[in-house]
Write a structure and sequence with these properties.
The chain has 654 residues and is mostly beta strands. The chain has four helices and 47 strands. 5% of the residues lie in helices and 43% in strands. Bound molecules: copper (II) ion (CU).
């Protein structure tokens, strides 16, 4: 993936104009002056073109435009974009939406200074999409009948761009929806697009990712009424994977696919809270917002929800330097959508009347945990006394709650920074406890971050038994990778975890240093730097975990909690004769219908949990391997982390 655009070769422009314009120039002075024509963010609500007699006629132009992902007053960037003829360019490009059977006649005129290859404007009865060139200044008509319903997209770029690149053509994309009937179910379409400047010697990677052309906090603020079914089509029109996570609710996957094919759900999990969407991938989800308040839908890659996504931060993406501060005013950026669920008329929030179980959780810091850098961790009070201030645990104490039992957790922040804690996967009754600073709650009554040396009371009643996560939410990525995460188990009443029959594995990054190395290597493809870096991943807080003993013939529940900041993880469980077999029984805390035994291999997405049943068949040694896989070729980065499992013979009959 090479970025070959030329705008950074231009000198920085200093504008000596009106005073208010000079303020803008100062904030964006590190960027070249963007194109004169502004692109309009496209919320993908209104389809374009003239539909008459079963024919949709559309005239598009591919042209340069100024993109303002941080809103009207943010910085601009010159990119290539589609416009309807005579209209402002849109990012993402104009929505094409037709009932199946419609004939499309789409003309594209190329006003760019280079030839472009267009993909996606053909029927999906094909195996793979053609790439059609349009010369500079030329026009081309794409005429076909759309016969296969689905969620697709079209895009322009270089000849070999099998998915949209994150270069100057990265916004030259548009959604293409073929409905199975003339009356589509109400839905929303969210396109994820990307722009990146690869790292070079001395210059860190910079990237930004947007939803329908905008980056948080300027993304659309969705408003829905409690109890109303919500259906979304997510289109990842970029060359990077995203892990889309919904706060407070489970969603159902209706279909998954890509630019050429859509697959109904089939054998996929029924419900979940996090869905991985590969480069060029799509999925359709639906959920019912049963509880009022402010909730989030966002990519769980820490960098994709960080303020480093903002254009005005581009020179300050100091991945190689110190970034210990916390900016409480703008704790997030990038691929984040806010949803306000308005209470249905007459709706009542049920508050339990039984006594709450009381827990006290401390966020602590200890110096020199990762070389010169501090470690952070959550410690649960377990003996009636507050733990010592530097008694961190990485991962945090395993919290075990009981389904249906109301709990009150007092979180004490003993870090020198504001803190937020998210109860990942828990269907909270009130969003006020959801852990997004100055957002969780209701409009006009939101929860702030927990100030240093302050505390915050969280109340909820977990409605479902399963494997969940608690973790820091907003703030610098270093806080998460330095230890602010822990496993959260909810068990059925009377069924505490049986230490002889189950094990929890928290998968995370090995401290803050790898964060920077890996972010650079992911984009440059320079894996050598990672090899030099060595161990990048933790299993239960260590890169050298103690061996585990299991008994042959015994069935175990293995709970995997995946909470790195930015990593593509792969777990394998192998023996001397090759891969073991296991059975997936739950994902993201939700039980699954019966699944077949499968090869013991997992690609856990960021912010996913997975529970397996595993029965070792014979005595011997097994190896659980955790690797960071950085691309589709499954090359590993750094040194994989191994956990040795010694399987003992089962005890004799006496
Ligand atoms: Cu992402």
């Amino acid at each position: 993936m090479m970025w070959t655009g030329s705008i950074f070769a231009l000198p920085t422009l200093v504008l000596a104009v009106a005073p208010h314009a000079r303020v803008r120039a100062a904030a964006c002075g590190h960027l070249p002056r963007p194109a004169a024509t502004r692109a309009v963010p496209n919320d993908n609500r209104a389809a374009v073109g003239v539909l008459a007699n079963g024919v949709l006629t559309v005239r598009l132009v591919a042209r340069p435009a100024a993109w303002y992902p941080d809103g009207r007053d943010g910085c601009g960037l010159t990119v290539h974009a589609f416009a309807e003829e005579g209209q402002a360019p849109r990012i993402p490009g104009p929505l094409l939406r037709v009932p199946a059977g419609t004939e499309l006649r789409v003309t594209i005129r190329n006003e760019l200074d280079k030839p472009i290859w267009i993909r996606g404007l053909e029927d999906r009865s094909v195996e793979r999409l053609d790439s059609v060139a349009i010369a500079v200044g030329a026009s081309r008509e794409f005429r076909y009948q759309a016969t296969v319903p689905g969620t697709y997209f079209y895009w322009g770029g270089d000849a070999d761009a099998a998915v949209p690149r994150s270069n100057v053509d990265g916004q030259l994309v548009g959604a293409l929806i073929v409905d199975s009937s003339g009356v589509p179910a109400p839905d929303r379409i969210f396109m994820l697009t990307r722009w990146a400047r690869p790292a070079e010697p001395g210059v860190p990677l910079y990237e930004l990712n947007a939803i329908n052309g905008l980056s948080w906090p300027n993304t659309e603020r969705l408003e829905v009424v409690q109890g109303t079914l919500v259906r979304w089509r997510i289109i990842n029109a970029s060359n990077f994977v995203h892990y889309m996570h919904l706060h407070g609710f489970y969603f159902t996957i209706l279909s998954t696919g890509n630019a050429v094919r859509e697959h109904p759900r089939g054998a996929r999990p029924v419900v979940e809270v996090t869905e991985a969407v590969n480069d060029g991938g799509t999925f359709m989800l639906q959920w019912t917002p049963e509880r009022a308040g402010n909730w989030l839908f966002h990519c769980h890659l820490a960098i994709h929800m960080s303020t480093d996504q903002r254009l005005d931060r581009m020179p300050a993406a100091r991945l190689a330097g110190d970034r210990k501060g916390h900016d409480p005013t703008t704790p997030m950026g990038g691929l984040v959508l806010g949803i306000t669920v308005h209470a249905a008329p007459g709706a009542v929030t049920r508050v339990p009347t039984t006594a709450r179980r009381q827990l006290r959780l401390f966020a602590d810091v200890r110096e020199h945990v990762y070389g010169p850098e501090p470690g952070y961790g959550f410690v649960l009070e377990e003996d009636g006394r507050a733990p010592a201030r530097d008694s961190i645990r990485i991962p945090g104490t395993r919290i075990v709650l009981t389904r249906g039992e109301p709990v009150r957790i007092t979180v004490f922040n003993r870090l020198p920074y504001p803190l937020t804690v998210h109860w990942h996967g828990i269907e909270l009754e009130r969003s006020y406890f959801d852990g997004v600073a100055d957002f969780s709650g209701e409009p006009g009554h939101t929860a702030p971050a927990i100030a240093a040396d302050d505390s915050f009371v969280v109340e909820f009643t977990p409605p479902r038994a399963g494997t969940f996560i608690y973790h820091v939410h907003d703030g610098p990525q270093e806080h998460l990778v330095s230890g602010l995460y822990g496993p959260l188990l909810v068990v059925d009443p009377g069924s505490p975890p049986d230490p002889a029959r189950e094990h929890t594995f928290v998968l995370s990054e090995a401290g803050p240093a790898g964060l920077r190395v890996k972010l650079r290597a992911d984009v440059t493809g320079d894996l050598a730097e990672l090899e030099r870096f060595g161990q990048t991943l933790f299993i239960n807080g260590t890169a050298t975990p103690e061996p585990l003993e299991l008994v042959a013939g015994t069935t175990y529940r293995l709970r995997f909690v995946s909470i790195p900041a930015n990593a593509g993880l792969r777990i394998t469980l192998d023996g001397p004769d090759g891969p073991q077999q296991w059975r997936l029984i739950a994902k993201d805390g939700a039980d699954l219908p019966p699944q077949p035994l499968r090869r013991a291999r997992l690609f856990p997405g960021v912010g996913e949990t997975s529970d397996f049943e595993f029965t070792p068949v014979a005595p011997g040694e097994l190896w659980l391997e955790l690797a960071d896989v950085v691309n589709a070729a499954l090359e590993t980065a750094g040194t994989p982390t191994h956990l040795l499992i010694r399987v003992k013979d089962r005890p004799g009959p006496d």
